Amino acid sequence: MSTNNTTPPTAPSFAQALAYWLWLGCISFGGPAGQISIMHQDLVERKRWISERRFLHALNYCMVLPGPEAQQLATYLGWLLHGKWGGLAAGSLFVLPSLLLLIALSWLYMAFGNTPAIAGLLYGIKPAVTAIVAFAAWRIGRRTLHSPGLAAIAAAAFCALFFFALPFPAIILAAAACGWLGTRLAPQYFAAVSAHAATTRQNHGAALIDDDTPTPPHARYSSARFLRTLIVGLVLWGTALAALTFGFGWDGVLTRMGWFFTKAALLTFGGAYAVLPYVFQGAVEQFLWLSAGQMIDGLALGESTPGPLIMVTAFVGFVGAWQHPPFGSEHLFAGGAAGALVVTFFTFLPSFVFIFLGAPLIEKTHGNLHLAAPLNGITAAVVGVIASLALFFAWHVYWPQGWHGPFEWPALVIGVSALYALSRWPTRVILIIAGSAVAGLVV
Predict the structure, then answer these.
(1) The pTM is what?
(2) What's the first-to-final CA gap in the chain, in angstroms?
(3) Residue 141 class from Cβ within 10 Å (0-12 exposed, 13-18 middle, 19+ buried)?
(4) Fewest Cβ atoms closer than 10 Å to its Cβ: which of 217, 227, 253, 364?
């Protein structure tokens, strides 16, 4: 698409940028692909705040970081426009509407989840979520498993998690090592296609931050600024964790959540679906903060709200703190809300630090990152991990009482229908969930 817009647009004020980031946080449905697509349409094509080349350069950096790439991209672009305050505003407003909505929905779930109407809605949403996870595994696998070596890594990751319940971090590290070694020793068996290699760059007109626009002063690399940012990030993290330890003890539920979700935030290569098995292992099996059924319900709520899917961790924090109240049984909502806030803080703090540390280097080099080999291995393992998660969810949804219990045929019909709908209309996730919820209510 060509255009005659040869004059760059006027730079947005900080207030105008705030209004946009808040609006984006309220309508960012559709997972990372949909959220990135919205930002591309708005910021590259319509507003022309940034050129397509610079947009993709920022996206490529966010893709290699642990954490939600769409939220990190919003943080990056906000930082590029208005410095660290712009980055903080963009990244925070990207998740704030989802956080507030999930706190409200989590309270409704815990207070009224056993009523017939709510139970019926969840009965339909659960198989739809199972279908969404299975579809995600198929979609990512189709895009990334282009060689026998990567397919073998995916199969090994599936078996390691589903049959042997190996720790998620060990699977990711082993996959990265296999990807690196395989690319060096047998590159013909480990070739992969870049996620953005086939992207067609189009001319949308002169942008405010164009291909040849000099890096603004606040975005230039400085070793002193790098060190200062690192210290501030570590101090924020350490102070928050120390305050929780002082107030509730190291074994307190909020302290444990802070430490656990710090580790989870550093392992979310491949998006939210990849880290969900690790969260499940810790929250459900190790700490017993919530049950497997509640975890599936939380994913259902996360799929039906705006913001990054990793916000399902806020539901985990709310339910875990509700059922293990840090302020006593007479303050259940306050405990649950505190759990959601603590989990959100420790989940997203590393993302902000990664952007503020690394983005100046990326703007300085404008080169390609050379982390493809280990990341290809991680991405392949993510496919197997997500497939394992889908099978696990199917087991709990279709056999809620175990293999010897009754099979939920209505749930299977809803799940298969949702999977078919996803294959036809992959961007209509909210409508598919809504239709499945109505079907569950009818059943």
Answers:
(1) 0.75
(2) 48
(3) buried
(4) 217
